[in-house]
Known about the structure:
The protein is α/β, with parallel strands linked by helices. Helices cover 43% and strands 13% of the residues. It contains seven helices and six strands, in the order βαβαβαβαβααβα. Strands 2-1-3-4-5-6 form a six-stranded parallel β-sheet, with helices on both faces. Helix 2 runs parallel beside helix 3 (74-98) and helix 3 (74-98) packs parallel to helix 4. The model has no long low-confidence stretch (mean pLDDT 96).
Amino acid sequence: MPKKVLITGGSGDIAQAIKSELLKDGFDVMAPSRTEMDVTDWDSIENVISNYKPDILINVAGYLIPKSIKEADLENTKRHIDVNLSGVFYCTEIGLKYNKELDIINVGSAAAIESHATWSEYCATKAGVAMATKCWAEDGLYAVCISPGRTRTKMRKSLYPDEDQNTLLDPTDFARVIMKAVYKEFENGIQIIVRKQNVEQILRGEI
C-alpha cells in the first residue's frame, strides 16, 4: 500500500508542485483547497483527517498580507497567526490523534530568519513553526522545516508584480527538496533554507 500524504493549502503553487512530485513516486496524495479543509477550523480538519488518516503531513497553507504594525489591523494580525502558526499545530495534533507515527514536514519561509518591516506577523509565525519543528523532533516525531526563499508563485506575483521572475526559485525545484524530506534524508528537527542559488547543492546532498 502506498503511503498517504496530506498537503494543506492544496490549491497553491507550491502545494501543487509537491503533489505532482509525490504522484510521480506513487504516493497516495490528498491536497485539499481552503474550502475543502480550513486549517483554522478544528471540525474541518477533523473531517478530512479522520477519513484519510495520513502517514505524512505536509503543512503548506500560508497567509501573507504585508502591513505596518503601526496600522493596527487586528484582523490581519489574527489571520496570520491563525493560518501560519495555529493551523500548523491544529493539523499536526489532529493528525497525530489518528496516526501516532505521523511524519511532519512543515513548509516554513526564509522570513523566519530575515526581517521585513511590514511582514512582522509573517516572519514571527514562520519563526514559530521552525521552533515547533525542533521541539517535535525532540519529542520523538520525525519533523523537519523546509523553508523557501523568494519563490515563483501567484501569491508573490501579486505582491511584487514587477519582479524579475528569473531570479526566483521554481516551485518544482522546491518540491524536489520536499521529496528528500519525505524520504527522511534530512536530519530530524532541521530547518533548511532553500533558495534558487542553493537548491541544486541541497538536491546533491552538499548542504
